Structure formats: C-alpha cells, structure tokens
Amino acid sequence: MSGIDFDSDVWKLTYGNTTVGKNQNWQFGHIKSPTLKEQAKRYFRDGLGQKFAKQDSLYRYCYGLKHFTKFLDEFELELNYCEELTYQYVMQFIWYLNQNLKSSGSRTGTYSSLKSVVTYGQLMGLEKYPKTDIFPQNPCKLLHAEDELVSKEIPLEVMEQIVEALKVEQDVVLKTMIEVAKETGIRLSELLNLKLDSIVPDFMDNPYLYVYSIKQDKDRVIPVRKRLVNAVQECIEYAKTFRGSSTLLFLLETGEPIQQWKAREMLFDFIGRHGIADPNDELEFAHVTWHQFRHSLGTDALSSGMHPIEVQELLGHDSLHSTSLYAKVRDIALRQEYKKVGFIGVVTKDPSRLTEKAHSAEELKLGSLPDGICRKAFEGDDSCKNFNKCLLCPKFITSPEYLEIHKQHLERIRKDRTKYMDEMYICNFEKVERIEIALESIIEQLEAMA
Asked: Between 42 and 318, whose confidence is greater?
C-alpha cells in the first residue's frame, strides 16, 4: 500500500470514510523485539494492501497489540518470533486481559489482534510461526464475553425518562440523533454518516431510511414513521445556517462532522442535564451508550413477535448468531414469568379415567396426538383453531408412555431454536419459551410417576 514507510515505527495514514478520525498513527515502537515487530508490520502491511480486512479494523488491531506488549513486560517474557508463543502463553495472556480490561469488547478485540497476526503467518506458510494451533477453541467463554449483552439493554425506567427528556430537549441535532438511534437501532458510525437524502419514499410513498454500514461495506433500508421523518426535516432546517456545503445530516454548529467521541460526550451530557437515573443502580446518573439503543430495539423487536431473520436484516447483522443473543436478554425475564404457570394441561397415568365415565379406546383414538391426547375428542369437538399450541392448552393430556417423545421434543428446541421455529412455523421466541417450560414441567411430572 502506498504511503507506508515499512521501516518506520509510526505509520501516518489517512482514512476519509470514517467517524473515528481521518488521521491515524499506527504505532509499533512499543514492540521491543525487532523481529517480532517485523512480523506484526508484515500482517498489517499485507492487510492494507490486499484489503482482507477493513482499515478501521486493522487500525484497532494495531492498537490492541499494545496490551500484548504490556503483558510481556509485566511477566518479563521475551519473544523474538511468533513461533515462540505457546498455548500456555496464550492462556496466561487471556488471564491478564480478564484482570486488566473491564469491557468484554476490549478483551476480545485485543485477543483477536494477537490471533490475527499469528494465524496469518500460519496460513501463508511463513517461517518462524507456530506449527500447531496454540489458541483455545472457545475464547469467548474464557474471556467472559458470551452473555454480556444481557446487561446492555436500556432499562424500561430509564427509557421512559429519556422519552420525557426528549420532549423538552433544546439541542435539535442531539434530539434528532437520539430519536433516530432509538427508532432504528443503527450503529453510531452509521448514524453519524447519514446524509441529507437518507430518507427516501417507496412507490407507495412510505418513508425508508437508507443506511450505509462502514463495518460491512453494504447498504440496507429501514422503514420509519412519519414522526421521525418530521424530526429529521426539522433538524435539516435548523442546521441550514451552519451547514455550508456538507451533505452530512448531523453536524456541529461549527459546521464540522460529529466524531464518535463527541457524540458519546453529547449523550453523556444529555443524561446528566436531565437527571436521568436508574432506580436499580446506586450511580447518580444512568449509564447509557449509543449502542444500547440498538440492543433495546433488537430485544423489543423479538418480543413483539418479529422473526429473527427480519431482526437480522433490520439491524444489519452478518449472521443470526448476533441476533440470537437478543433473545437471551428476554429469556431470563420470560422464564421467571412462565415458571409461575408451568404446564396447564393434564399429566396422568391413565387418560381413560379423567372423568367419572371411562373412555373407550375408540374415543382415545379420536383425540390421539403424537405426544398425548386432546380432550376435545371427549367433548364432541373435533376442530381446533389453535395450531401448534397443544402443549399450551388445558385440553392437552399426556401420560408416561410419551415420556421419551417429550424428551426428544425438548432436545430439538435446545439444539437449534431458530431451526425449530422454522420447522414448526412458529414466528416468535416467546411461544418457544413457553413450550420449553411446559415440556420441562411435563417431563418432571412423568419421571416422578415412573
């Protein structure tokens, strides 16, 4: 890549299409071993030249290597080549990250910076790199990063205060930024890169927000309400006096683009000025980040019955893995509520003796189901409008002979919820959660009868 002085310990690069700043100083002077430094530089030079990763991502990886250098210094370790790294060193580094970095994102990002440098050399067959895999199979678990999303949804009490504060907020630009983030769940980088013409109508004149993702280098459109369209128009009118020739939607009153650090500062001031606090936290003011609006929208979308694939498209996730994490947020609260109800049908050793009158084999056959019996057959009703809701119906009966079927059913759900939903034509996680809890109750009762 042009502009790189490979021998220099500081690469001064520019990157125009970003909100983290145009000027980037890539620092390598902290790496004491000249040969280890050269291996690191080679990865970043090739990455920039071949574009196998985005410049912003590589820049963050370069910065993350500083923590690896601090780790080597603290434990008085000397490495001259990547090949000297061992599994034990990596595990020690993970322990160091857990002790010194509070954010799981920082821990995983720093870990990934080291792994990327090493695995690149291995994949390219370069000399002086480890000959075997030295990285653990489940780093997220070791870095305590699997379920941190649970704590990132904005609490309902805090969101209600934010909504009230927006009604009286005088900073039109900031107010509109929060409104857009709250309604669309777009990333901060996407928010700050919105253009004046980002809202476009379809052929039915319904408004859509056109979003470009720097992270993924692709576009997506998000349906928005007329109220948000009006808020954006008000913001555009307000900024006319200082906009100049800029096509960005959100600007400072100096006419300059809003950098990410500045946007975070603006949100922090907003929370403080309006005295927004979390009643469940001892802090004076609530801790709210731009990304939490994204988490909250994803959680609410799943709660309202939106299919995971639709939520994936709405938020611009690369895979369903990220989307599925939002379901985990709700699962904890839902499970507590549904546990109180459990299974509302009947578990019995002898289905034929449910009433004073004994039921014949023919009657039982009429109500036969793969995992039990529908009591409607005993009541002269052979129709049902509640498709796929047998386990949630008080008319459902099951007995010990169906125990293994219930266990297999529960296993299917836990193995792959999304696949189960598709196969069973279920459109929301809430129903799956209720079925799972019903199955747990059924299995527990049937096993007690054995």
From this structure: 42
CATH code at 160?
1.10.443.10
**8 Å CB contact between 98 and 106:** no
Pair (23, 131) in one structural domain: yes
Same domain, 310 and 290: yes
pTM of the predicted structure, to 2 decimals:
0.49
- Domain range enclosing 126: 10-146
pLDDT tens track for 93-135: 998 998 888 777 788 889 989 999 999 999 899 999 999 889 9
Tens-place pLDDT, residues 206-216:
888 888 876 66
Same domain assignment for residues 200 and 114: no
pLDDT at 20: 46
- 376-386 pLDDT, tens digit per residue, is 766 665 566 55
pLDDT of residue 429: 66
Q: Say if residue 115 is in the same domain as residue 162.
A: no
For position 310, what pLDDT does the model report? 65
Residue finishing a domain among 114, 146, 178: 146
319 and 237 part of one domain: yes
What is the 3-class SS of the chain, one letter each residue? CCCCCCCCCEEEEECCCCCCCCEEEEECCCCCCHHHHHHHHHHHHHHHHHCCCCHHHHHHHHHHHHHHHHHHHHCCCCCCCHHHCCHHHHHHHHHHHHHHCCCHHHHHHHHHHHHHHHHHHHHCCCCCCCCCCCCCCCHHHHCCCCCHHHHHCCCHHHHHHHHHHHCCCCCHHHHHHHHHHHHHCCCHHHHHCCECCCEEECCCCCEEEEEEECCCCEEEEEECCHHHHHHHHHHHHHCHHHHCCCCECCECCCCCECCHHHHHHHHHHHHHHCCCCCCCCCCCCCCCCHHHHHHHHHHHHHHCCCCHHHHHHHHCCCCHHHHHHHHHHHHHHHHHHHHHHCCCCEECCCHHHCCCCCCCHHHHHHCEECCEEEHHHHHCCCCCCCCCCHHHCCCEEECHHHHHHHHHHHHHHHHCHHHHHHHHCCCCHHHHHHHHHHHHHHHHHHHHHC
Residue 340's pLDDT is what?
46
Burial class (CB within 10 angstroms; exposed 0-12, middle 13-18, buried 19+) of 10: exposed
pLDDT at 53 over 90: no
Residue % of the chain over a pLDDT of 70: 77
* Same domain membership, residue 156 and residue 132: no
Whether residue 275 sits in one domain with residue 157:
yes
Between CA 281 and CA 342 the distance in angstroms is 32
Query: Which residues share a beta bridge with 231?
Result: none
